[in-house]
Write a structure and sequence with these properties.
By secondary structure, this protein is an all-alpha fold. The chain has one domain (7-133): Up-down Bundle (Four Helix Bundle (Hemerythrin (Met), subunit A)), CATH 1.20.120.530. Helices cover 71% and strands 0% of the residues. The longest helix has 22 residues, at 114-135. The chain starts with 6 loop residues before the first helix and ends in a 21-residue tail after the last helix. Helix 1 runs antiparallel to helix 6 and helix 3 runs antiparallel to helix 4.
Length: 156
């Protein structure tokens, strides 16, 4: 069992797994990810967010299995648990953001663009963590927003 990971560790582990999984992917894996996306998008977010959050988190389990590395898969599975908790905490307001990111990720994976897929995953997870901090009551003025989410002309 792996203990809780820091936000940066979760992002690094899942991004690395995404890069590796992209290189291991077959058309059947891509079809399974597409089916997972369609299942998640077909579920209603409001009445049963827990069920939809679980459907969203399934992506991480698929990526973990594709790494071909037992230790990395174990780390990704641990991260997936933390991310599931994060998605539950952020709530249904994140549904559209999660679905959009999964669609972009799938496009990168279908193009066999491992670096692009890893960048999308990293961007998405940074945004989710930011939303998680806000959901826990952190003030937007006191919460560091990921640089990729800052307006172009805004200072750090």
């Amino acid at each position: 069992m792996v203990g809780p990971m820091t936000e940066d560790a979760v992002i690094s582990v899942v991004s690395a797994a995404t890069r590796i999984a992209c290189k291991q992917m077959t058309l059947q894996h891509l079809d399974a990810l597409q089916a997972s996306l369609e299942q998640a998008s077909g579920l209603s977010a409001r009445p049963d967010w827990g069920r939809k959050a679980t459907a969203h988190a399934e992506l991480f389990n698929v990526l973990a299995g594709l790494t071909g590395d037992f230790d990395l898969a174990l780390l990704v599975s641990s991260a997936a648990g933390q991310l599931h908790d994060l998605v539950l905490r952020v709530g249904p307001a994140a549904d559209g953001i999660i679905l959009s990111s999964r669609r972009r990720l799938l496009r990168q994976l279908r193009a066999w663009d491992a670096d692009g897929a890893a960048r999308e995953m990293e961007h998405h997870l940074k945004g989710l963590h930011y939303m998680g901090r806000l959901a826990c009551g952190a003030s937007p003025a006191r919460t560091t927003r990921p640089s990729s989410l800052r307006p172009q002309n805004a200072a750090g």
